[in-house]
Specification:
- This protein is an alpha+beta fold and 510 residues long.
- The protein has two domains: 61-264, Cytochrome Bc1 Complex, Chain A, domain 1 (2-Layer Sandwich), CATH 3.30.830.10; 289-496, 2-Layer Sandwich (Cytochrome Bc1 Complex, Chain A, domain 1), CATH 3.30.830.
- The protein has helices at 2-16, 103-110, 120-129, 156-168, 174-190, 195-208, 220-225, 228-238, 254-264, 316-327, 333-341, 372-388, 393-410, 414-427, 437-443, 446-456, 473-477, and strands at residues 61-64, 70-75, 81-89, 133-137, 144-152, 245-250, 289-293, 299-307, 348-353, 360-368, 463-468, 483-486, 492-496.
- The strands form two sheets. The protein has a seven-stranded mixed sheet, sandwiched between helices. It has a six-stranded mixed sheet with strand order 1-2-6-3-5-4, with helices on both faces.
- It starts with a helix and ends in a 14-residue tail after the last strand.
């Protein structure tokens, strides 16, 4: 299979630091001994090629069934295993009923707690007997519910029978719902002591306002409002096949998968539902610092973010490269400066959230309380540096090569491969989108990255969220802008002002 050859080349290039080359005629460099743990030094002795990696990924088989369900099958006979992933648009937390935020999440969880023909314990026992799994999930801000599972090929018939039972005939037992509420109530109270949760909750609220994208967790009060009748109604109206897709990967053909699905899910009838819609979140307000006062914190959780793009934006690849350079891994600038050079933290990273609506760029780290101001100042300086100075040629090439190498390595996994095609289905991407991924990344220029940084990482767009010690946090952070303070329950308790967010400029280039 061509994927094997491709991956071998990717691994060799990623380890050696050499650029990935065309699959044809490629030779892997000799294996080297790992460097000492005290320091990693890139010697740059491996052969270098400027060729662009070119691939043609195996195409999945597809079919649309009579009930509207779209079937995607990627056959791979190397391992006797089958995995599946069912996506149901309109059944995620984005579409929670008015006044019942969290109903979608509870519905998904409770679907595994009993069906018309199996109790919760029977489901678990039958799956354990065949070393298989079935799970249902629906995030608080997700537009979809997902049912996923896996098993050995010989148990595919049994797995899909259980899968169909969970999907089509959940019973939502009152006693199981009561147990779930009791278990979850305690965890909801406990999570408010977690600095990471408090930061993410406030960051989401700052970045997305009242939009469903700003939801992070159901509240204890919201949990108690969810009734069995609400779950039954949500499942009945939202778990429909009209716009759903079922992706299957592994030791199975399209014909075999279609026969299995039509045999087990024959009772899943088309509902005539319209395609679910979404709206754009509002832009955040004026730049400010939002601080969660967490008494006795010995560190500060810092997040810096700005509105960014949707997944289908033409600048997605450019923004991805930009993010990789500044914080998309342990070789990103934030990690190298805040951890390796300054020793403020164990790690500093960034990511881009790009979905069907406009997402956000976010950098985050956790630092010792006494270096909060210095760490934030250095983080913002790296943002300014990326906006103002071109990325050096070697650094730029290394990051792009790492992105392509990581992509190539992922092609070894049938599950990751099918995930790429799920993404293509979800966002209506071109058929050759993934074939051209290396080419598109290699085509990104330093000028484009700098322009994207100036556009999306403008200081006037940045929002800062911090969780830390109330004795020192507000005083230290007022240097960076207007400070709004919240307690651990998310309630506003104070504000201070020092004007506009400062523009931090690096003194010299590293």
């Amino acid at each position: 299979m061509r994927t094997h050859i491709l991956t071998s080349v990717a691994v060799a290039a990623a380890i050696s630091g050499a650029p990935l080359v065309n699959v044809q005629g490629a030779q892997a460099p000799a294996q080297q001994q790992p460097p000492p743990s005290q320091a990693v030094v890139q010697k740059g002795r491996a052969p270098v090629s400027t060729d662009v990696l070119r691939v043609t990924l195996p195409r999945p088989g597809t079919a649309t069934l009579s009930n509207g369900l779209h079937l995607i099958v990627l056959e791979d006979r190397r391992v006797p295993r089958v995995t599946f992933q069912l996506m149901i648009p309109g059944a995620g937390g984005y579409y929670d009923p008015a006044g019942l935020p969290g109903a979608a999440t509870v519905t998904a969880t409770m679907m595994r707690e009993g069906t018309a023909g199996r109790s919760s314990s029977q489901l678990s026992e039958q799956l354990e007997t065949i070393a298989a799994s079935v799970g249902v999930s629906a995030g608080m801000s997700s537009t979809e519910a997902t049912v996923s599972g896996s098993c050995l090929t010989e148990h595919a018939e049994t797995l899909f029978e259980i899968f169909a039972d969970v999907l089509l005939a959940p019973s939502f037992p009152e006693e199981e719902l009561g147990r779930y509420k009791q278990r979850t109530q305690a965890s909801l109270i406990q999570q408010r002591s977690n600095a990471g949760f408090l930061g993410n909750e406030l960051y989401s609220r700052v970045m997305y306002g009242s939009h469903p994208a700003g939801r992070v967790s159901i509240t204890p009060e919201g949990l108690q409002k969810v009734t069995r009748a609400a779950l039954v109604d949500f499942h009945r109206t939202r778990y429909v096949p009209d716009h759903a897709a079922l992706a299957i990967a592994g030791d199975i053909s399209l014909a075999e998968a279609r026969k299995l699905v039509e045999g087990k899910l024959g009772g899943w009838k088309k509902a005539g539902a319209t395609a679910p819609t979404i709206s754009e979140p509002p832009l955040p307000g004026a730049t400010k610092v939002s601080f969660v006062a967490r008494p006795n914190s010995v560190q500060t959780n810092l997040m810096v973010g700005a509105p960014a793009i949707s997944r289908t934006d033409p600048e997605y690849d450019v923004v991805s490269v930009m993010n990789k350079i500044i914080g998309g891994g342990p070789t990103g600038r934030l990690f190298m400066v805040l951890r390796e050079e300054k020793g403020y933290t164990y790690g500093a990273y960034s990511n881009v959230s790009a979905l069907r609506w406009r997402g956000a760029w976010q950098a985050s780290t956790q630092v010792r309380t006494e270096v909060t101001g210095n760490a934030l100042r250095d983080l913002l300086a790296e943002v300014a540096k990326l906006r103002e100075q071109p990325v050096p040629d070697k650094e730029f090439a290394d990051h792009k090569r790492a992105m392509v190498g990581s992509f190539a390595l992922s092609l070894e996994s049938p599950q990751q491969m099918i995930n790429y095609y799920v993404t293509s289905w979800r966002y209506s991407l071109p058929a050759d989108y993934w074939d051209k991924f290396p080419e598109r990344i290699e085509a990104v220029t330093q000028a484009q990255v700098r322009a994207a940084a100036r556009k999306y990482l403008d200081p006037s767009r940045l929002q800062i969220v911090a969780v830390g010690d109330p004795k020192t946090g507000p005083e230290v952070l007022k240097e960076f802008g207007t400070v709004e303070t919240y307690d651990v329950e998310g309630k506003r308790i104070g504000a201070g002002s020092s004007g506009q967010l400062l523009e931090f400029r690096p003194a010299v280039a590293r």
